[in-house]
Specification:
This protein is an all-alpha fold and 108 residues long. The chain has two helices and no strands.
Length: 108
């Protein structure tokens, strides 16, 4: 009985360790995502400032070209952000599945 109790305690500890690991990975991913979002936000803000300056100083056709280039940049940044979010969500799901599989194996 004490052996079973010890095994149960070990399984509980492994479970808690895995939960902690998942939380750490999640926090790390969130920090990385937030950091990248900050960089993207600053890039967008700088792009808007540049666009405003260019529009004040350039001919109308040049303004239209600059705006199109900026819209392209914004589109690329949005696409990169979307890809980063998908990657983060996929990695989180993989970790959760792995944890659940390990938990299921340990329960058997």
């Amino acid at each position: 009985l004490s052996k079973q109790k010890k095994e149960l305690e070990e399984l509980e500890q492994k479970y808690q360790d895995k939960e902690k690991e998942i939380e750490e990975v999640k926090e790390k991913g969130e920090k990385e995502l937030n950091s990248r979002l900050d960089i993207l936000t600053l890039t967008l803000e700088e792009g808007y400032r540049k666009r405003e300056e260019d529009m004040r100083n350039e001919h109308e056709s040049t303004k239209a070209q600059t705006e199109a280039e900026l819209e392209g940049l914004i589109g690329k940044l949005r696409e990169e952000l979307h890809e980063m979010r998908e990657k983060y969500e996929n990695e989180t799901e993989q970790i959760k599945r792995k944890f659940e599989e390990e938990k299921a194996v340990e329960e058997v």
